[in-house]
Amino acid sequence: MVKRTSFEGDACPIARSLESIGDWWSLLIIREALFGLRRFGEFQSKLGMAKNILSARLRSLVDHGILATAPASDGSAYQEYVLTPKGSGVFPILVALRQWSEAFDDRPEEIATILVDRENGRPVKKLELHAEDGRLLSQADTMVKVRPAPRRRSA
After folding, report:
1. CB burial of residue 64 (10 Å; 0-12, 13-18, 19+)
2. What mean pLDDT, rounded, does the chain reach?
3. What is the pLDDT of residue 9?
4. Which domains, ranges and CATH numbers included, belong to the chain?
5. Which class for 77: exposed (0-12), middle (13-18), buried (19 or more C-beta within 10 A)?
6. Rounded distance, CA 61 to CA 58, Å?
């Protein structure tokens, strides 16, 4: 298998995030962890992944601080995979991907689920990007600029 390019030291934050969560299996594992799956066998059964691929992806997610291992909650000798705060932070990314698919999929009627507010059962509002002053922003309203260099402390 060809080794892919590492984006770990890339200056672009999007490329850097892809180093941790950039393959589809990793995102699907995180999705299932958000739904409450914790055990290797649960992930394998739900996703239908080959065990060697699942093992490698779980190890990578642990190495990147997205999942952590913990003793099994039932006291058995097994370990479980739990989301870290960094892993839970992927939730809005998955919601954005879901909403993008719902808006642009060629066959949206085949999408089997909708994301709803647990409290009232109503669909979740589409994610929006807002300026610090509350204005709704589009891509045309944004730009990327060089981050200012950190200030040096004087002695």
Report:
1. middle
2. 91
3. 75
4. 13-89 (1.10.10.10)
5. exposed
6. 5
